[in-house]
Design a protein that fits this description.
8-stranded mixed sheet, about 550 residues, 18 helices
């Protein structure tokens, strides 16, 4: 499986600096139809959480595009929706940066609050966020049914729309949407950059396969490389990152002090083994329905948030120690959790981690389809269609894991989404589209195109190993953010010590775009915060108080 050991021997910050000599042209693309420029107007929604400087305004537009890009002359059309922070004074506009959201299944405008923080650093650029076809206002694929019952909706859609409808909701069609939208939107002399995050990096890779000369600058964040990124091995990768956190605790003086020399990995194994055997005394008194899968979901929720990762080992220690004080503090935590009752290691849990941790759980500004609930205008339907058709079977296997193999894996995992079996059963009956010539291939990036890759070395959603492999394959620079969670440039995932300053990865990305791909400025990486595993900082004490009802992260020995 993907482990960090071999990659820790690599140089984490590759010395291959991007060239600033790229000359991307928005019109330099294989256009299949001619479009009029989008007509920008007031959006059909408000963004109360957005902080918009006077230089920009929030506007939206719609383009009518072919449903089937292989046959653009056919009458079938879809709507392609764009949300944007547009410059108020168009005479100051030098170009636009297009932000491609993750998932698959996330809508573009979900990222608006997070990226509004970028605007002061982009005084001559628009930020444009398209809704991937099948999400948001781009002909959203909508089903009320969930789990295996979604097949009722899928079959109904095929009956109503015909068998040729769903195959057009794929990364290649979505990439062609972006190619044509960029060409239609660009004014004379303007250039375009692209930021892809999570699945959005796969979307961007497909875009670069089709139109490598169109963009002037590219930033990829949380690398979902097309030849490695697969869903059936998600929980395996997730569990590996959680175990890396245990090893980090073992090497941290403060963390190790509270464990009294006991290995965090062994502590966790003892707790989970006692859960399996129904011999964990504190669980029987605290929450009798807690089992391996539901505890794994809770730990995953904590692991998915950079500041809340420090809660993982202290929670396990309280479960193992089970003093009177521990039980009181666990009871306090229980009031902030919704722990699903799971009677089988691989039964489907409808409450994913972000829902499990209502108050102390992660707040993520990017959609990760595999472990977090999609926003109101996202689409599970669209996500499944792509995942099951070209992102499912682990790249080192010819066939998917069997139900029995998944159950064996689940019996050893301590961090989990507990969805592998449901997804595998659904994948077997899904009407999958046929892979095209771009599937499972990495784009040949032009040497002169400024491109940087960003990734946390403890990314719980897209393996750090994928990012290393991608950067070596395309011969471009990888910036590694220590201890960072998924989507480094969004949502407080790479905080710096300076109060009120923008996240380090966001600072780097913004300057990279603003300078049109000049060598990235990396000074903030020396100012990044590190995980306070000992619970010494005021912010960590406040988090402990909110979570456990005490300022002591590790409780009372």
């Amino acid at each position: 499986m993907y482990t960090m050991k071999g990659f820790r021997l690599l140089v984490l910050l590759l010395s291959i600096a991007p060239s600033a000599s790229g000359h991307g042209d928005p019109q330099d693309a294989p256009l299949r139809i001619s479009l009029s420029p989008p007509s920008w107007s007031t959006c059909p929604f408000a963004c109360a959480e957005c902080v918009i400087p006077a230089s920009h305004q929030l506007l939206c537009a719609n383009l009518t595009l072919p449903l089937d890009w292989a046959r653009p002359d056919l009458p079938a059309r879809i709507n392609f929706h764009l949300s944007a922070f547009r410059l108020v004074d168009p005479s100051t506009r030098e170009g636009s940066v297009w932000l491609l959201e993750g998932g698959p299944g996330g809508d573009g405008f979900e990222m608006l609050p997070a990226v509004s923080a970028w605007l002061p650093g982009m005084p001559t650029l628009d930020l444009i966020l398209p809704d991937h076809r099948g999400t948001g206002f781009s002909d959203r694929l909508l089903c009320q049914e969930s789990g295996l019952d979604i097949m009722i909706c899928v079959n109904r859609t095929i009956a109503e729309r015909g068998p040729d409808y769903l195959p057009n909701f794929n990364p290649t069609s979505a990439a062609l949407d972006v190619v044509h939208a960029i060409a239609a939107n660009a004014g004379p002399g303007e250039w375009a950059g692209v930021y892809g995050v999570s699945y959005g990096t796969k979307w961007t890779n497909r875009y670069l396969q089709i139109a490598p000369s169109q963009p002037s600058v590219v930033v990829l964040d949380g690398i979902c490389a097309s030849n490695l990124c697969r869903i059936q091995s998600y929980d395996q990768d997730l569990d590996s990152v959680g175990r890396d956190l245990f090893r980090m605790c073992e090497q941290d003086r403060e963390c190790n002090r509270y464990l009294n020399g006991r290995f965090a990995t062994r502590l966790a194994e003892d707790v989970f083994n006692a859960l399996d055997d129904s011999t964990l005394r504190c669980n029987n008194e605290w929450h009798p329905s807690l089992d391996r899968a539901s505890l794994g979901i809770v730990l995953t929720g904590m692991l998915s948030s950079w500041p809340r990762r420090v809660l993982v080992v202290p929670l396990l220690l309280r479960l193992a120690r089970c003093s009177t004080t521990d039980k009181r503090e666990l009871e306090h935590l229980l009031g902030r959790l919704t722990i699903p009752v799971v009677h089988s290691p691989m039964s489907h849990v409808t409450l994913p981690p972000a829902a499990v941790l209502r108050e102390v759980g992660p707040s993520s500004t990017t959609v990760d389809f595999w472990s977090e609930p999609l926003p109101e205008m996202g689409s599970n339907f669209l996500g499944y269609n792509i995942l099951f058709s070209e992102m499912f079977v682990p790249y080192w296997r010819e066939e998917p894991y069997s139900d029995h193999q998944l159950a064996e894996q689940a019996a050893a995992q301590m961090f989990t989404t507990n969805r592998s079996l449901m997804l595998t059963q659904l994948q077997r009956v899904w009407p999958k589209y046929k892979p095209d010539q771009y599937t499972a291939k990495v784009a040949s990036v032009p040497p002169g195109l400024p491109l940087i890759a960003l990734n946390g070395d403890l990314d719980q959603a897209t393996s750090y190993a994928w990012a290393v492999n991608y950067s070596l394959t395309v011969n471009k620079q990888l910036l590694t953010f220590k201890q960072a969670v998924h989507a480094t440039a969004l949502g407080g995932h790479t905080p710096v010590r300076q109060p009120g300053a923008m996240d380090c990865a966001a600072q780097i990305a913004v300057k990279f775009f603003n300078t049109r791909g000049a060598a990235p400025v990396l000074s903030c990486m020396e100012q990044m915060q590190t995980l306070d595993l000992g619970g010494l900082l005021p912010a960590t004490k406040q988090l402990a108080n909110s979570s456990f009802g005490t300022m002591r992260l590790w409780g009372t020995p």
